[in-house]
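Handout, section B. The chain below has 271 residues.
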Amino acid sequence: MTASPETPPAASTDAPAAAAGVTAAELPRIQRRISAVLMAGQMLGGLGVPISIALAPVLATEISGTEALSGFASTAAVIGTALVSLPLAALTTARGRRAGLLAGYAIGTAGAALVVLAASVKSFPLLMLGMAAFGAASSANLQARFAAADLAAPDRRARAISVVVWASTIGAVLGPNLSAPASDSFAGTSIPQTAGPFVWAAAVFVLTGTLLGVLLRPDPLLTARALAGPGEESRQGRSLRAGLAAVKASPRARLALLTVAVSHTTMSRSW
């Protein structure tokens, strides 16, 4: 008597979710928790940058001895934000949201420390290097917003991002009001008072990175990738060139990109 071949088990209808370690029923709960963590991170991250960036021109003037170079500090931060964005995006694509965000805040923390050192030794080149690295925290703040859309339903992705962006305004409003207390907290110490806000910013970035490193689990991007079908996964891995082509093909996308560019230019001038 020959044994009949075993009938293969029926394929699971939720195979991608099983591969991701979550079920479809769990996704709404996970999305709500991740959104809450991202909102908390944006409140903190949005607080760290404004605390110190407002005093960057003052610090540049003190170190250089001339007001003509005061704007270079803010410019270095903006350039640093732009330069580090692509490497952070590549790291995020390869290792997930958590890795990219932690790297951004770590570089920003190192930048803040360099700014404090530059203020102590009166080195303008070191200040520029520190401000450029400090800009990585701004890049992390911006990239964190899009993590809210990773697990959101397609028709709710815009809302998910907007809620997290709204949370960042809390830190943006509170930050400048804490610059004076941050400066006064180092009165009578070896650290120049104008560099005090950067010490506070470094502490905020460490706290933000710790929060995201511990609580941003499962990683939203890696989970979304595991849940996606082959076609959707390939769309997630599109290149920068493909993204630019999509913007070029859409009048609304071009208008949105122009609006963002103008708003950030205005913000940079206000620094």
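Note. Residues 238-271 form one domain. Compare this with the example in section A.
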